[in-house]
Structure formats: structure tokens, C-alpha cells
Write a structure and sequence with these properties.
472 residues; Rossmann fold; alpha/beta; single chain
Length: 472
């Protein structure tokens, strides 16, 4: 298949069908689960600051309503098209099911390069898009809850919530119409780095499994593991930070302008600082430049983490991938052809459909915060600190020994919002990893971890449909 003929949604369906044969569900129910329920395609005009008028193309897809609201990000990219948005919405359905987040899958996109527009023009585009979603009943805390994605962030989410609230002044839960907001507007501490932290937790759990590590001649744990990361956006940067803090060695980093490597390890903050000052990660002191960005994908390493866009490892370059584990931090970075090739090489692919679920998991926590109208930790922080302090005091009296100031501070510490959010995310990713591995080990016919993840997702979505009585 040529790259021009590649269908992202078709690839998702292919993976779904591959897994469906390992489930017990009726063919009609499986067709319902895989289909996109609603596709909204928009056109609206933008009057630019130079006086010209431009027609903007945009989409919002609601893949599944087995649970509501639907949930999924909005991306700003010239690559946005209906096929891509449908595929990403479908992945959101399966992702939410695996990590037990009670949402149906959704996704949105606006076909623009945000770098080509002024902040004022981007605000006009975002607010008009939101108003169109409101008019079409495609947004709301109980209907469909967008979030940031490629090319968007807290700023765009603040414009969305402001527009929605202005059009729904009597909705006390209006802040829950979108997640990824600034904390001052109802966002949650820990959301910005959540996807990267989820990637770290998921891969760390895999690396803690002796059987999987033994198959690949690796020791357990992430300490000392040689890591290659493609993409230094929000996800790639935070993934690199957490692996580096855990004692892993970042031997190569790649961005669209090129890639750099250093077998002794790279400091991600120093690389980001160098890129800000020079406009490129290339020529970083002590590092070797690689001829092409894609060359980083073929380096010998323990864990390769593509954290940029889809379809970067395909039938052409997959034979040259030289990692022991590939962790899909991006959405759809491997094509089905690449999957088969890496499987034949004994490379473990940890699939995107749950590995990058950190963002939607913490988005779920933000949505719950918006509906409850109270921040995490407010009710229990001081109680916990006082309780821990009293226990510590009693232990010191009984033993006659004093705890040093640093340990005392750590033991007495009551949980802040970010502590509770990160704890919930860690619990979610560990449980999801174990469920997938149990499904995989429980059926020797399942060929790989991605198929096992789809089986887990299909079973959970199908069970919801049958429990609702829609498909008895």
C-alpha cells in the first residue's frame, strides 16, 4: 500500500477486526462498536486582519455513544481530514474503555497551520468553531467534551469554555464542557504532563514484568535503559523528563528539523533550551547530528518512543527498526504492515490505544472536578497532615528517636491536587497494563499486545451495550 493510499481509519478497523475474532460477540454488535456514530463536517468564513476572507474547514466526530459524554481532543493541523478524525475518535473509544474512563470516543480537528495565523485570528477561529458545535449540539459537559491535541493547548481551551459558557449562561456545569483548561479556569494540576507521565507509567510496568524482559534479554526496571524519543512536543518532552528522572539514558532525540544522539545520554531540558535559542536541536554540544529525523527510529536501543504524528513507522522502514520495545506515545505511529514486521522480529509494541491514555484519564479527573465544584485535596489535606504528624509524634515518643527534618516533611505531607491526580493516573496505567497482559497470556492465539488491548476494549464496550439492553 502506498502512503498516499493509506487510510488511518482503515488501519484502526483492520486492528479491530483482527481482535474481534478472539471475542464471543455477535457480528452485528461488533459492526456497531467499530462504526462512527456521527460525523460533523463544517465550513465557516474567517475575515483575516489584512481584510481577506478565508473559508475554514473543520470536523467533529462522535465515534461511540455507549457511554456519554463523548471525549477527545481538537487538533489544528493542515493534515486534518475526515479519515484521520474518525480514526482518532475510534481510538478514543477503545482507549477510554481500557482505562475504565466512562466516556465514548470523540475527536475534532481544524484544517489550519496555527503558525500562519495571528492570536486574534486563532481566537476567532476557535470561538466560531465552538459556536458551531453548540448549535449542532456537539459540545457540552453531558454531550461531548473536547480537549487539547496537536497544535492546541490551554489557551484554545479557555476560548472554548468562555464561548460555551456565554451561550449557555444557565448551565452551572459549563466549565465541564472542555478539559485541558488553565487551572484558573477550572483546569486540574498535572494535566499538562499527564500523557507523558502515563506513557512512563505504562512502559515502567511492562519493564517490571520479568517474563517479558526475559524474552528480550533485558533486565527488569527502567533504570539504565537506553531510550530514543521522536518528538519533543508536550508528550515527548514530559516522557523524556520522567524517564530521565528514573535513571534511564536518553541516547537520541528527534524533531522535524533533524535528530541528535549521544551514547552517554542527553539532558532533555538542555536540548530544549538549545532549541529555543538556536531554533533547532541540531548542533547540540556533545551530540552527533543524524542525517535525517527518521534515522533516529532505526537506532539500536532498548525502548523507542515515537511521540509525534501517525504513520512514522511503516512497511518501508520497519525492517530497520532496532529497538527491543516500541512504546507508542503518539496516535497511530505504526501502520498494520509495520506491526506485522516488528512482531516477526520479536519486538514488543506497547500500543497507543492505552499507552497514551494519561491525557484522557486526567481529563476525566478534571471533568469530575468541574462537576463537583471542589478541588482535589481541599477536604482531606490538613486532616491527613495532622494525622500523620500525630502518628509520627507517637512513634518518636515510643522509640526515643527523632526523625530528620526532610523525612518529617515527607511523612507529614498531606496530598495536594497534583499528588492525587498523579496517584490516580499511576493506578490507572498499572491496572490497564496488567489487564491487557492477562488477556494476552490467557489466550495463546492472540499474537501481540495491540490485539490483546483491542480484545479488552471490545469486551468492555460490548458488555456496556448488552447491560443497557440495546443488544440483548
Amino acid at each position: 500500500m502506498s502512503q498516499t493510499d493509506y487510510s488511518f481509519f482503515g488501519a484502526v478497523e483492520q486492528s479491530f477486526n483482527k481482535a474481534a475474532q478472539f471475542t464471543k460477540w455477535d457480528k452485528g454488535l461488533l459492526e456497531q462498536i467499530s462504526a462512527c456514530n456521527a460525523v460533523l463536517r463544517l465550513r465557516f468564513p474567517l475575515k483575516r486582519e489584512d481584510g481577506t476572507i478565508e473559508v475554514i474547514e473543520a470536523y467533529r466526530v462522535q465515534h461511540s455513544h455507549h457511554k456519554t459524554p463523548c471525549k477527545g481532543g481538537i487538533r489544528f493541523s493542515t493534515e486534518v481530514n475526515q479519515d484521520e478524525v474518525m480514526a482518532l475518535a475510534a481510538l478514543m473509544t477503545y482507549k477510554c474503555a481500557i482505562v475504565d474512563v466512562p466516556f465514548g470516543g470523540g475527536k475534532g480537528g481544524i484544517k489550519i497551520n496555527p503558525k500562519d495565523y495571528t492570536p486574534y485570528e486563532l481566537e476567532k477561529i476557535t470561538r466560531r468553531y465552538t459556536s458551531e458545535l453548540v448549535k449542532k449540539n456537539f459540545i457540552g459537559p453531558a454531550i461531548d467534551v473536547p480537549a487539547p491535541d496537536y497544535g492546541t493547548g490551554e489557551r484554545e481551551m479557555s476560548w472554548i469554555v468562555d464561548t460555551y459558557a456565554a451561550m449557555n449562561p444557565d448551565n452551572i456545569d459549563a466549565a465541564g464542557c472542555v478539559t485541558g483548561k488553565p487551572v484558573s479556569q477550572g483546569g486540574v494540576n498535572g494535566r499538562r504532563g499527564a500523557t507523558g507521565l502515563g506513557v512512563f507509567y505504562g512502559l515502567r510496568e511492562v519493564c517490571n514484568m520479568p517474563e517479558e524482559m526475559g524474552k528480550r534479554g533485558m533486565t527488569t526496571g527502567v533504570e539504565g535503559k537506553r531510550i530514543v524519543i521522536q518528538g519533543l512536543g508536550n508528550v515527548g518532552y514530559h516522557t523524556a523528563k520522567y524517564f530521565q528522572a528514573a535513571g534511564s539514558k536518553l541516547i537520541a532525540l528527534a524533531e522535524y528539523e533533524g535528530a541528535i544522539m549521544n551514547e552517554d545520554g542527553l539532558d532533555v531540558d538542555a536540548v530544549v533550551s538549545h532549541r529555543k535559542s538556536t531554533g533547532s536541536i541540531l548542533n547540540f554540544p556533545g551530540a552527533k547530528n543524524l542525517a535525517k529525523s527518521g534515522d533516529a527510529l532505526e537506532l539500536e536501543c532498548d525502548i523507542l518512543i515515537p511521540a509525534a504524528l501517525e504513520n512514522v513507522i511503516n512497511g518501508e522502514n520497519a525492517p530497520r527498526v532496532n529497538a527491543k520495545i516500541v512504546g507508542e506515545a503518539a496516535n497511530g505511529p505504526l501502520t498494520p504492515e509495520a506491526d506485522e514486521i516488528l512482531l516477526s522480529k520479536g519486538i514488543l509494541v506497547v500500543p497507543d490505544m492505552y499507552l497514551n491514555a494519561g491525557g484522557v484519564t486526567v481529563s476525566y479527573f478534571e471533568w469530575l472536578k468541574n462537576l463537583s465544584h471542589v478541588r482535589y485535596g481541599r477536604m482531606e489535606k490538613r486532616f491527613q497532615e495532622n494525622l500523620h504528624g500525630k502518628i509520627l509524634e507517637e512513634m518518636e515518643n515510643l522509640t526515643g528517636k527523632k526523625v530528620n527534618d526532610d523525612d518529617r516533611k515527607f511523612i507529614k505531607h498531606g496530598p495536594d491536587e497534583v499528588d492525587l491526580v498523579n496517584s490516580g493516573l499511576e493506578e490507572t496505567m498499572i491496572n490497564a497494563t496488567r489487564q491487557i497482559m492477562e488477556e494476552w497470556k490467557g489466550n495463546p492465539m492472540i499474537p501481540d499486545m495491540r490485539t490483546a488491548a483491542y480484545v479488552v476494549a471490545i469486551n468492555k464496550v460490548a458488555s456496556t451495550y448488552t447491560q443497557l439492553g440495546i443488544f440483548p
